Predict the structure.
Amino acid sequence: MTTTAAPQFLLPDGLDTATLVARLRHHLPWPLREESAHELSLVLLDTFDWRVFEDGGWLELESTGRTDRLTWRSADESQVRASTPVKGLPRFARDLPPGHLRDTLGPRLGVRALLPLVRLSGARTTLDATDPEGKTVLRIGIEALHLRRAGRRPGFGPRRLRLLPVRGCPEALTAAETIVRDALGLAVATAALRAEALTRAGHPPGDYDPSLSFRLAADQRTDAALQAILRKLLETMLANEKGVREHIDTEFLHDLRVSVRRARSLLGQVRGVFPDRRVAVLRDDLGWLGHATSAARDVDVYLLAFDDYAARLPAGVRPHLEPFRTFLTARQTRAYGELAACLESARFRRLTRRWRLLAGRPLPRRPVAKWALRPVGKVARKRIWRAYRNLMHLGEAIHRDSPPGDLHEVRIAGKKLRYLMEFFRSLFPPEAVDLPVRALKTFQDNLGEMQDLHVQQEQLGRFERQMAKEGTLAPETAAAMGQLIAGLAQRQTKVRLEFAERFDAFSAPETVRAFRQTFRRRNGVQEVADAGRARAGGTSPG
């Protein structure tokens, strides 16, 4: 059983496994016993957003010609977290065989599909170093693998010698490391074999990150800062386009929609930075794309929540809901087909071109737009403070009899404020924005659930009427859907009653103070902290 990280060494070109083993036998002070040597094929798997890698591990399907085994390894490749026999490539967590691997890895995968990122073939040899009594003091692994690419000859791939420590024998590991490095002249590998294989295949681990993880400078001109944000949002949208077209999993569409919604919000809230006509045309296109994606996303949401819906019904009623699942699945197929056609359209290509031009064209030295040259720190503070005051004004106007539309306005105002704080978070010290962001998120959760419950009841009613029109609504299914709608209405009433408590918490003195201290205009001067330093500005945009 291993206890520490397993050192890895690079195998140079021209050094085959047989020659390496002979050199090891010559230099190591222990007899070497070959435990196994076999040809193998590996497929490295992960989600598009690297959930396995981000959890500190690797997932691989290993085929030896006789069996297929799915193995979840530690980041240093020395530990097997879980392993199970499988038949073919699993696609979703639900496709994993019941057992420890599914129980532990499944929740991390969520609704994301596992993608085959790289295929390797080659040989693995395992040797045991033994003491005079035959006890294993060290295990040695040799992997010589090649990249496999469709339609091409196997490319040169990663090759490693790995020293696997054995519990209670640290001296053997230390001695072997010295011999391999000094006597054999092998260089220490700086990256795991699987990381190198993914990088060589064009999938460097962690290469997709939808978060707005970049730093802006407070004294940076605002048009340059907005271009940086727009480029990141465009990059995210385009990265997810293929996954939406192929309907790989529902998160591709979710991330694409979020990037579109963020871009439209940014252009609508921070005005006077680019020429008005260009902004108006792009915002119109972004609104069109957002609307075009709505039908597919709506059905995704109901299918993802279907099991939860069914669980709310009595056990005897649940089977009657299955025709509704069939209806949703057929509707999802049609919606994604229509969306794929939309992504193939000339308008989508024009949208992408306009977005790319606005985000990447050289900035003029003397722009026409009024606030283009203003320091972004000043502009960001002003816009966040205005959005916060608007949210407070709308929230304070809510009373017991306020219609759902008024609450929806509060929700939209909260979302706009959240987006602004995400866009410009790097301009402020983390400790200054952590409390406002946490308070806003808690408040938004209540508003979001309230709106979702309202929309779900209306949408379920429309689905029910559509099924009746198509002749697929049996009385038992109609009754089950009616119970479901009634349950959602009860939950909405409860969540609605929680609004005042959540808004009071958001309006607490410490939260108000945090917003004022960080974002409020003071004596005509807006102070923006960047990297721990205070910067002063002048006139702010109106």
